[in-house]
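queue> holo job accepted (uracil)
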Amino acid sequence: MKDKGIRLQKFMAMSGVASRRASEDLIKEGKVQVNGRVVTEMGVIVVPGKDKVKVDGVNIRPESNKVYIVLNKPVGIVTSVKDEKGRAVVTDLIEEVDERIYPVGRLDADTSGLILLTNDGELAYKLTHPSKMVYKRYIAIVEGVPNKGELERLRKGIRLEGRMTAPAKVKILKNFDEDSILDIQIHEGRNRQVKKMCEKINHPVKKLKRISFGEIELGGLEPGNWRYLNDEELDYIKSL
Ligand code: URA
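queue> job finished
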């Protein structure tokens, strides 16, 4: 699925350069560059937030350009736009994007996997609101092998800080002698929730990775890599 592109003259008009008609004239006059190449033909499509457009050598971009990104956060990176201890943060991995984006929710520094980033504050708020019931899916390596009763406790809800967790979907994917791999889906976003839930059943988490956020999946995205959400994913998150 391709990123959403718009015609170059529309992009220019949205950036406040000139009307679409006058922007076409600027293009014909050879004053416009896309990704470092002078463009003089009509019909060029650009992707806001991705393609770099210059007019008379000056970078331009639409004022209200909304960007939606999915990143595979490696272990050790902080989910923030700035860290007071100077540690690397998720936005350090997305330097090519000019918009001021920020993470939707958070993953612990020692948790890896899917994190969404956007500059659409309204949508970010909606996505993290518990009433939205967006399931987040985690793969957890835990110590030992949880028995049926322990798995049922995770599913039904566990008391954490005086409040029960909402029902979760939990499966054992594999067990070894010393540890097991669990597939856990929760729709809340309480602090260190998966780790605390597993600790409560005496099977502490050794490693945690988030692989999906609702219908948005990490797929083959390598740790440290990111991509824009495709049209289908955008329709999905906007429909929530
Ligand atoms: N649950 C956790 O314990 N940590 C995370 O980073 C996410 C969910």
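queue> Residues 107-108, 111, 192-195, 208 surround uracil (CB under 6 Å).
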